[in-house]
Specification:
244 residues; mainly alpha; 2 domains; globular
Length: 244
Amino acid sequence: MRFADYFGSAFSAVSASQFRWTKMFRESTVAKIEDVPVSHISEAVYKTSVDWINQRSYEALCSFVSWSLDSILADSASQQAGVKGSKKGVQQTPSKSQVAIFLVLAMVLRRKPEVLVSLLPTLKESSKYQGQDKLPVIVWMIAQACQGDLAVGLLSWANFLLPLVGGKSSCNPQSRDLVLQLVERILSAPKARTILVNGAVKKGERLVPPSALDMLLRVTFPAPSARVKATERLEAIYPTLKEV
């Protein structure tokens, strides 16, 4: 936590109005947000930081990632409340260097992407992580993990995001597009097919489990009357995901 406090001090001059992450994440493509805010620090600072992160215990990193996500979602809720209350003269309290939390969280997920895997059950089971308003943050987190391990990224996508597209609950076109953007970036990464076909996060487990593949099959080849704009994009990625 002291590590996050250091960056909190370094970015203390960055106000909430300067780092409007909720608007940025909601209106930007995955390609544009995946390097936010890591692109704002030097390579030397990044390398020193991830070397330090590499020395921390797995449990400590899991705890930090969980805390960071809760903090980010609380900030999002606070911003929404601020917008709703603005007409009544309620001023939003600026978050304490939210950019620093995003930065350290990004570096942890890039250096230790497997931490995200341990949190997947909680993300799937807890209602506080459900909802399309939470989706951009989860997509951003998985995009960070992809920088460290494509296999972790695809596993996370198949287990958490694919059910949103293929499940019974409604998924609006914007959310569906975001989910597909992420997997398209994963599959278009250099040597992605080789890495994913030969990769495994847990020995003996497929990155796209049978249940996810069945769901993918249903949404990729629906009845003609059920086809949507995203169907063609699903048809394009299905062969590779089936192979994985």
